[in-house]
Amino acid sequence: MMNVENGVHDAHYFVPSPSRWPIVGSVALFCMGLGAALSINNVSGGVWVLIAGFAILLWMMSGWFGDVVRESERGNYGQQVDYSFRWGMSWFIFSEVMFFAAFFGALFYTRLISVPELGLPSDTQFHLWPNFQAEWPISTGPKSPDYQSMHAFGLPAINTALLLTSGATLTWAHWGLLQQNRRVLSRGLAATIALGALFLSLQAYEYHHAWTSLNLTLASGAYGATFYLLTGFHGLHVLVGTLILITMWLRVQRGHFTPLHHFGFEAAAWYWHFVDVVWLMLFLFVYVI
C-alpha cells in the first residue's frame, strides 16, 4: 500500500527515459584499461588511448549529471526520489568509509603486528635482518633506508586547520541557504573551495619536499608506501570534493536550490565533512602517533 502520510512516498515515482550514458561510461572504462595496459608495455599509441578514455569519462559525467540537474530543476523529483537519493549517498559514503578502513587496517597491521613479529629474535631474523629493530618508522635493515619521516607540525598542522575551517565555511554556506541568503551561500561556498584548493597546493609542496629533501619515496619501505597511499588517496578525495563544490557554486550562480529542495548541496556537504573526518584520523595516526 502506498503511504503518503509520512511525506516520503509520492503517487507517481519519476522514471527517467533510457539513457546512453551507461554505455558511454563503459566505453570510457574500456579505453582507460586498454590504454593503461598498452602504456605500461610501451606500446605505441597507448597513452593516447588512455587520454581518450579519460576524455570520454569526463564527457559522460558532465552529460549524465547535467541530465540529473535539468530533471531536478524541472520539478520531476518528488519526495520519494529525494529519499532514494539520500539513501544512495549514504551507502556511497559508507563504501568510502570501508575503502579507507582497509588502508588504515593495513597501517595498523604493519605497525602493531608485522613489524613487532619481525623484531623477535630468531635464526631467520638474525641471518636476513641482523640489524633490524622493531620500531616505527623502520630505520634499520639489510639496506638501511636513508630517509626522514614526516613531522606533524608544519604543513600537516596547517592543512588540518585549513580543512577544519573549510568545514565551518561550508556550514556557514548551508545556513545561508536555509535563511535564503544567497550572498552568504555563495561566499561560504567560494571560501570552502579556496581552502580546498590551498590544501591541495600545500600537499603538493609537502610531497615535493618529502621526495627531494627527506628522500621519502614510495620505495622507502612500509612507511613510505603507507604514507603516500593514505595521504594520496585522501588528496584525491579532496580534489573530487573541490570539483563537486565548484559545480555547486556554479549552480548557485544560476539560482538553483531552495531551502526545501537542495539535496545536491547537502550531498556535497556530506562528502566534504566525510573528507574532513578522514583527514583528522590521518593526521593522528600517520603524522602524530
Helices and strands in order:
Blueprint: H1 21-40, H2 46-73, H3 79-118, H4 123-128, H5 155-178, H6 182-212, H7 221-253, H8 263-288
Helix pairs in contact: 1-2, 3-7, 3-8, 5-6, 5-8, 6-7, 7-8
Walk me through this protein's architecture.
Helix content is 72%, strand content 0%. The protein has 289 residues and is mostly helical. The protein has two domains: 18-76, Helix Hairpins, CATH 1.10.287; 79-288, Four Helix Bundle (Hemerythrin (Met), subunit A), CATH 1.20.120.80. α3 (79-118) runs antiparallel to α7 (221-253). 20% of the residues are buried.
List keywords for this structure.
disordered N terminus; Helix Hairpins; Four Helix Bundle (Hemerythrin (Met), subunit A); single chain; 2 domains; mainly alpha; 289 residues; 8 helices; 0% strand
Task: Characterize this entry briefly.
With 289 residues, the chain is mainly α. Helices cover 72% and strands 0% of the residues. It contains eight helices and no strands.
Shape: globular
> Helicity, in percent?
over 70%
What is the number of helical segments per DSSP (H or I, 4+ residues)? 8
Average of pLDDT: 88
Oligomer: single chain
Provide the gyration radius in Å.
24 Å
The main β sheet shows up as: none
* Strand content range: under 5%
Sequence of secondary-structure elements? HHHHHHHH
What structural class do helix, strand and pairing data support? mainly alpha
Q: Please indicate the count of domains.
A: 2
Task: Provide the CATH topology of the largest domain.
Answer: Four Helix Bundle (Hemerythrin (Met), subunit A)
Unreliable stretches (pLDDT < 50, length at least 5) are: 1-6, 140-144
- CATH superfamily of the largest domain, by name, is Cytochrome c oxidase, subunit III, four-helix bundle
End-to-end distance: 55 Å
CATH architecture of the largest domain: Up-down Bundle
